[in-house]
Amino acid sequence: MSSIDPSMENMLETFIYESTSLLDELDEIMLDSEKSKSISEKNINEIFRIMHTIKGSAAMMGLETLSNFAHVVEDVFFILREDPSKLNLVMDTLFDLLFQAEDFIKAELDAIQGDGNGPDQDPSELMKKLEAQVDIMNGTAPSQSKDPAPAADTQPAAPEAPAAPSDGEHKPASLSGNGFHQIRVFFEDGCQMENIRGFMLLTQLKDYCDELESVPANPQNDANLCNEIIKNGFLVRFKTSGNPEDVIKVIESSVNIKSYEVLESQPDPEPAQEEQPQAVTSQPAPAAAPEPQPQSQAVPKQEPASSSLPKVPKQNLINVNQVKLDQLMDLVGEIVTAESMVSSNPDLKGLQLDNFYKSTRELRKLTDELQDVVMSIRMVPLSGVFQKMNRIVRDMSKKLNKDVELDIIGGDTEVDKTINDSLSDPLMHMIRNSVDHAIEPPEERQALGKPVTGKVTLSAQNIGGEIVITIADDGCGLDREKLLKKARENGLLTKPESDYTDKEVFGLIMLPGFSTNTAVTEYSGRGVGMDVVRKNIEKVGGTVNIDSTLHEGTTFTVKIPLTLAIVDGMEISVGGTIFTLPITSIKQSFKISDQTPILHNTDGTEMIMLRETCYPIIRLYELFNMPNAVTNLEDGIIIQIEYGDRVGCIFADELIGEQQVVVKPFPLFLSHYNIKDCGLSGCTILGDGSISLILDANSLLKSYER
Prior knowledge:
Helix Hairpins; 5 domains; five-stranded mixed β-sheet; 23 helices
């Protein structure tokens, strides 16, 4: 694969982002089209536009292999644009080939991100198959399958492709003379970042020109120039000792160019600059010019340029590097901490400062609003991750000869970007588990009286401060006896089988190395998939629960917090040390009397009876070996906590009050001590500058179970 053009390395991130977004769009179009067993005329045009854009972008970046490959795919859809009825000739094979083509492009982009070059992939075989589709639709010899690209450019009415190549015979006359040549370029409607695209065009042209300038000049330095370029076009002025046609060819092959117009050459750059505004305003009617060529080359572009003005509001959307958002979030966290330190300064105790406290309340209001705005910026919909699951179900259905339908609900639910990125792998493993293990083959489903088409439902909803994601299938369900037998053979049981509840048995599938498959396949059998699910979900503070009914289906329920950076916490005191407990983990808190029933197990642990249910008591001073703490249960406070389906009670000296805190990770050197397994998830800075450890309900309750 070709390496990145060094002059374009500063545009690599934009190229990767735009190409990935286009591929996600292509994936959705293809999945919907395959389901309906047809590609609409609108989608044919959209796919053509996507491949045309990727082709041009890759060529601009110096990625010849990727550009040539996208060109072949573009050829296929050029023919379909001309005659959609030809789709019937290639319907049986086209979808599979397009998904393979998409996978190849994705692999190339992943490799570029990894080392800046690419993998040793040879797309020639796939290109031959795509070219064969062109031959079938054309009914011509293979040699003609290489010509559709120029044909694509000869369509003056094509809204997506550059219309200018149709005027090839007029170029020499319009670019005659030794002075400065002028070409006005119009970019596609709604392509966005017109100033950057103008700069990219200049970068491509500089090797072909002795002198090169543009109006507006230095477009990359000012994003506000986008509106001007949309309205007036991007004027390129150049002088070359070579063939001016080479410049035209570069413009024609460039990405996102809708049309161009060759203006009259100027011997002196100064008059040209003075006339430039007139040229702009006279574009719609260039008939008064002495040469007719510019008018013939201006393939209806002035009206589209002016009609693009209503699309200017799209410029309100900008792409921001996630690193900058992380830095912004950290700064907001520091502001929250600083505000707390100011308002809780111990030097102010006992002072009557009404105006000061009024100001701090206003400051708190503003910091809360700032935090909400920053959090909303980081929130992204789950639809991007959810849509990727469609492709997984589609590919697995074909390879496993199963008929499976994925139903997506609540894809517009938003979560923090960090959590969104962490969900892709867990969801993929759970979806694959449902399709591979749970959904029966069609003949078996028919024998059981089930619909031949299996159904997997992926849904999300916002409940309180959590996002609840469920993956439900109507497959065979989990067999309790089979799971216990497998766990017994692997030595994974820690208590008598009869003592295991159904949920505990179902949870065995998430243990490392546990798999019900007897043979390793492409999708399962290694016992790592569900273990990855559990670890990745818990890493972002979430839980996974499994419910299943034999022969009816299985449901995975994932609960994750909306965000991990700033939480509302309850400060509690134990032996003079202040701990912070997230509010979302607290069910209730209460004092007990000497009449409250306290039960003692044979192993010395304590249980408290609440509404005819026993819950364990976790004495924090014992867990952390803290002296000078309250030891009598009647003198302290009981706090009932929950995490997932586990509930317990912790014992502390007293409740101090609610406080919004910024979660900070532990220093790296503490990772050697597995401190998170001891019931702590991080730390925070209090208003007086002291450090408070944040309690983790999940590990606290798990430590009691062990």
